[in-house]
Write a structure and sequence with these properties.
Layout lengths: L7 H6 L1 H6 L7 H5 L7 H11 L7 H21 L3 H10 L8 E2 L7 E2 L1 H13 L18 H10 L8 H19 L14 H17 L4 H12 L14 H20 L40 H4 L13 H19 L7 E7 L14 H4 L3 H11 L9 H4 L2 H7 L2 E4 L13 E7 L4 E6 L12 H12 L5 H12 L8 H5 L2
């Protein structure tokens, strides 16, 4: 795996960033206008600036490397989608300085921020990326920015693999802490798509860390990012939804670059200031708390709670109903000997109230990925849900439509729209009068039931095989596994 070369005119334009890495310098006027001490915003800036590799526990490093590998695989298979092709064609119109790699396109390079955008779109193009609690997609909003930034810097200032891993975890931590500032964020969202909000902030924090920005610049990067954040939930289940991740990783990256060049923003952006909304504008309920300084008394959120990895490309809520449907399907096979839809009178789904994933008759792949009804019926009919389940021919099957006609939805009061508390239940009411029921309260891949190493590698190899040869796939696996010891983290991006 060789390093990537950059055009000389681009290297010259990176002198400011090169000088900022490992040497904490900033203009006097920026220092003077940094966040005052003892504010929420200043605590975040201090955390970003002050975090060190030794602050990452073995558990945090292990879990975050699993996230990086999974996210790369999801991005690689996402590069085969129509929505990614649209985004890539757009990016190639505006990329005169092409130094950063693109998922699944070995011969294609883009400018760093556009590469981050394109790779972010790829990551979320199938809704196959990881999910945390409170609900957001943390990796896709951060990893593409770091991959692009690692290739942007001149050869003598490349961040190490440990620098990369630390920056990634800083981006995760900022997202997680911000999500915990609002009780409404704990439930499936109704207004803003979370990664478009906290993901933009996480990307800014991660990139600021990778570029070794000063504490004051980290503060301003967060303030700038807040002005670039946010996307409405109405675009869920459309081709526009993957743009939310693409924009989050790109715009957070741009916020850090602007801060590095001296742009300033409100130093109280994360604080709750009466009469003047900052980051609180995204939430109806907002109670910010300072972020503890890194060190012996700080525990990363990833230490406390693992991540959810998806086994098939659909909204996380679908994984509960699919596992419930597969469970009741097995009962049906024992009951009837084979799966015969004619024996079924009614299919009852007991699911949380969540309008944008309650779609009785989806007509596109993106709607199908956000439909409790579709995913339950596809699992019942086929005994699995996978990449092929969301093709147009699969969605339009007559036998599937006939099953959808039999679905009735119920919303039990105890089934709340919360990824830590919800469950899925599928009951088959047969013409004979018999009732068969399957229920799932924790699917395989949830943070309470994490994917095994073998399952994670199987998913990665399957996803990556759509665009890469076996040799490259194994190289990426080895590179991520050995990330702490990598002297030049851009080698990971160059292997894509």
């Amino acid at each position: 795996m060789g390093g990537c070369s950059c055009p000389s005119h681009f290297l010259k334009s990176q002198k400011l960033l090169a000088s900022s890495r490992h040497v904490h310098k900033t203009a006097a006027h920026v220092v003077a206008r940094s966040a005052p001490e003892d504010t929420v915003t200043s605590s975040f800036a201090s955390f970003i600036h002050g975090s060190r590799p030794d602050h990452l526990s073995k558990t945090v490093r292990h879990r975050s490397k699993r996230m990086i590998l999974d996210s790369i695989g999801v991005g690689l298979v996402g590069s085969t989608t129509h929505v990614f092709d649209i985004a890539l064609r757009y990016c190639r119109l505006y990329s005169p300085v092409a130094v950063s790699s693109v998922y699944g396109k070995p011969g294609v390079k883009l400018s760093p921020t556009l590469a981050a955008f394109a790779n972010g779109v790829a990551t979320h193009s199938m809704d196959f990326d990881d999910t945390w609690h409170p609900a957001t997609h943390p990796s896709g909003a951060v990893l593409p920015a770091l991959l692009a930034a690692s290739q942007m810097l001149p050869p003598d200032t490349k961040p190490t693999g440990m620098d990369f891993l630390l920056a990634f975890n800083v981006g995760l931590e900022v997202q997680g802490r911000l999500m915990h500032f609002s009780t409404e964020a704990h439930d499936i969202p109704k207004r803003f798509h979370p990664p478009s909000v906290v993901g933009t902030m996480g990307s800014a924090a991660a990139t600021a860390k990778l570029l070794s920005l000063s504490r004051a610049q980290c503060c301003h990067a967060l303030g700038i990012a807040a002005s670039l954040a946010g996307a409405p939930m109405a675009n869920a289940a459309t081709q526009a939804k993957p743009l939310h991740i693409g924009n989050a990783t790109r715009l957070g990256f741009e916020a850090a670059l602007l801060a590095a060049r001296g742009m300033e923003a409100n130093p109280f952006i994360l604080d709750d200031i009466p009469g003047c909304s900052g980051f609180s504008a995204f939430y109806g309920v907002y109670h910010p708390k300072p972020l503890p300084a890194p060190g012996d008394h700080h525990e990363f959120l990833l230490e406390k709670q693992d991540i959810a990895f998806k086994r098939f490309p659909a909204h996380l809520g679908m994984h509960w109903v699919v596992d419930a449907a597969l469970s009741v399907r097995n009962l049906f096979l024992h009951y009837a000997g084979s799966f015969s839809p004619a024996l079924i009178r009614t299919i009852v789904l007991k699911i949380p109230v969540s309008k944008y994933i309650n779609r009785p008759f989806p007509s596109s792949e993106h709607q199908a990925r956000h439909s409790f009804q579709f995913n339950a019926c596809a699992a019942l009919l086929d005994g699995e849900v996978g990449l092929g389940s969301f093709t147009e021919s699969s969605i339009q099957r007559q036998e599937l439509r006939e099953l959808l006609d039999k679905v009735v939805v119920e919303h039990p009061e105890d089934n709340v729209a919360n990824f830590d508390k919800m469950y899925g239940e599928v009951a088959l009411l047969l013409h004979s009068g018999d009732v068969l029921t399957g229920k799932c309260d924790t699917f395989y891949g949830h943070w309470r039931k994490p994917l095994s190493k073998e399952s994670l590698l199987k998913k990665f190899r399957s996803n990556a095989s759509h665009v890469l040869p076996e040799e490259k796939i194994e190289t990426i696996i080895a590179t991520v596994d050995n990330l702490e010891n990598l002297s030049d983290s851009s080698q990971l991006a160059c292997s894509l």
